[in-house]
Amino acid sequence: MMKVKIRVRGTVQGVGFRPTVYRLAKNYGLVGDVCNDGEGVLIRVGGSEKSITEFMQKLRTESPPLAQINELVCQPDEGEFKFNDFVISPSINSQISTEIAADAATCPQCQQEIFDPYSRYYRYPFTNCTHCGPRLSIVRAIPYDRNNTSMGVFPMCGECAKEYQQIDNRRFHAQAIACHVCGPKAWLERSDGKPVTASMFSMLDDVDAVCTLLQRGEIVAIKGIGGFHLACDATNNTAVATLRQRKQRYDKPLALMARDRFIIEQYCDVNDQEKELLESPAAPIVLLRIKAVMGTEINGNKNLNRPISQLVAPRQNTLGFMLPYTPLHHLICKRMDRPIVFTSGNISDEPQCIDNEVAKDKLGQIADYFLLHNRDIVNRVDDSVVRVVDQEVQVLRRGRGYAPAPINLPPGFDKAPPVLAMGGELKNTFCLLTARQAILSQYLGDLANKNVFASYQDTLNLYLHLFAHQPEVIALDKHPEYLSTKLGIELAIGNQIQVVETQHHHAHIVACMVENGLPLDTQPVLGIALDGLGYGADNTFWGGEFLLADYCQFTRLATLKPVPMIGGKQAIYQPWRNTYAQLVSAFNWEELRGKYADLEIFQFLEQKPLHVLSRMIEQNLNSPLASSTGRLFDAVAAAIGICREESSYEGQAAMEMEAVCDTNNLNNYQEIISYPFDVQILDTIDCIDPRPMWEALLNDLQVKTSPAMIAAKFHKGLADTIVKMVIRLRQQNFIKYVVLTGGVFQNKILLQQVKTQLEAIQIQVLTHHLVPSNDGGLSLGQAAIAAARVIKS
């Protein structure tokens, strides 16, 4: 008899992998055992060589839906082997290097059961199996066994224990198995503390009552799988307006949930890729184009629903939709024939609530009712946000369904030390890197909020514990005032760990290199990093950069012209400040006023204390120079009347200008003449100067050109200029790849324009797909830079 040990690494715990191994081993007449341990799954088998070979082949081809095998290694078993059958052995606690599965949307079989009156899972809101359900959100330690999750306090009843032990049952060793008898319970409460009685509703149970409440125009806080959500009827203007006012989220688009894809298709165009994303186990929020004409027939059914409130996504041409992804959501939405708002359960800018008592305290002034349950959320996990651009998926926020799926490192990183990368300040994530892979945390938010920063530290400690990660290097952003940087320095000093500082835009570029699999020894790429702000190598603020970069270092080849950010952070939320800064940087104000005094933007600016602002610029008072592409977008948007006075979130002006852009004429070279930019020399590097663009834009405003056309001409002009700069730099440097990164490249129009033009001249373009191009992907780049420098030192 041949005896071997098979080591399986990857996402193989909590996904039904051991039951699959068991069934296959029995089918091939093998003896031995399988168990979870810190490295993944360990299989010991004895049998004929032919049977073992076929067994290993089947392991790869017949893995469970949520499993991912990264490595399968077989070697002779020289140890004691006393088996006369095949069994599942208890988990072994050993050095941890395995993966935790992401939370997965309810599978079709479980969906069917919760609506089947003859099933013991009928209307049970926590139904799950090895193919779906909570994972990261409930796990406290590895191995992924019930006692290491928040399900450990719910002893299985006899029926659940029976299914758990049945080899041919899809709940065989499903760690979160539960039912009405033994599992978590959900209940409804009023926010004012008064009792909820059955006579108040025509309802099957408390979960069903939520649907009635939403239909009546109430706001309900719902505890889900990774946090609380706030829900209301998306077609009810009053309900949406009330939610915005109470939540203090005045403009930012709100996410939507719909019972099924057919409801979504009444409001948005949905292509095959977008349909696949909506219905995938990750079940993210998918950004979808709003239908030009609503009320069209879908599958023979005419749209009879009321329109979605314009307050859901003010001045946008997309809506963010998701489908129900837990049994609780499916049960709520069963009778809901129109979309509901389903936004994070928090006060604006704070972390999503995960605890019942905290939620009642924080959300009590927002929600009218609470749907609570008694399964603890161990790990806060926000919904992921994705979209499709040119048949490619782009992740805008990486959370539930994606995190903490690892990102495999390219060739050359096999000797990387354990690295902890702390991330940035906005849209923060952190990253744990080992020799094989990088584990990026879920989206955590903006660290300037003290509660988000506290949540960041809690999540970081949990990950370090879960993965037994002991970093030998800590990677930081160069910005000295980032809270993540300060915390990283504290950790490094306290634990005597090496620190590697990374430049913000270099990290953006390297993150894109990693996810595209470029080997460690790749020749420098041309990285174009466009964003709001990042601390530059010269201790000024950058944001429109062309860097020749490899994994270890970079050279700045070109930049956008630096312009003062008048009032510092105020410039982010008052776009008109950027318009004024751009104009006085390019022209003499008195001459401009004489020529364009009749323009609305000049009349607006004349009402501001311009002499104070000018003195701030002249004396460099809280007006740092910044080559920020994001602030250029803000300046142009304000000039044409978009978010001129203020914006309530960073990037609002740019998003609204992208939405208003005349895309019908954008791609028609005969109809649209793009705005020109100039190229100057600034301190020995090329500098893109927007002065000619502003002259053309102001002239267009004088002749009453529409904002839609001006926006199109600006987008196309900037894209054309970027492409011309690439051609110019390629004449002086060997460039095989061009990397497009940074938050500004979340602008679909700009990304498509630049990518299409570069590919037309045979340039290989790399973009983001696994991690966000914004600061949510920053920590991956930081970690890879630190690892590369250590390897090559």
Detailed description of the structure:
The protein is of the alpha/beta class and 793 residues long. A hairpin with a 3-residue loop joins β20 and β21. α5 packs across α9 (327-333), α15 packs across α19 (629-639) and α23 (707-730) packs parallel to α24 (748-760). The longest helix has 24 residues, at 707-730. Mean pLDDT is 93; it is low at 295-303.
Key attributes of the depicted protein:
single chain; alpha/beta; 4 domains; 10-stranded mixed β-sheet; 9-stranded mixed β-sheet; 25 helices
Please outline the helices and strands.
Elements: E1 2-11, H1 17-27, E2 31-37, E3 40-47, H2 49-61, E4 68-76, E5 86-88, H3 108-114, H4 158-165, E6 186-190, H5 206-215, E7 220-223, E8 228-233, H6 237-247, E9 256-257, H7 261-264, H8 272-278, E10 285-289, E11 297-298, E12 301-302, E13 318-322, H9 327-333, E14 340-344, H10 356-363, E15 369-373, E16 385-389, E17 392-397, E18 407-408, E19 419-421, E20 431-433, E21 437-440, H11 450-466, E22 473-477, H12 483-495, E23 498-502, H13 504-515, E24 525-535, E25 541-549, E26 554-560, E27 563-564, H14 570-573, H15 575-586, H16 589-596, H17 600-605, H18 610-618, E28 625-628, H19 629-639, H20 652-660, H21 663-666, E29 678-682, E30 685-689, H22 691-702, H23 707-730, E31 737-741, H24 748-760, E32 764-766, H25 778-792
Helix pairs in contact: 5-9, 13-25, 15-19, 19-20, 22-23, 23-24
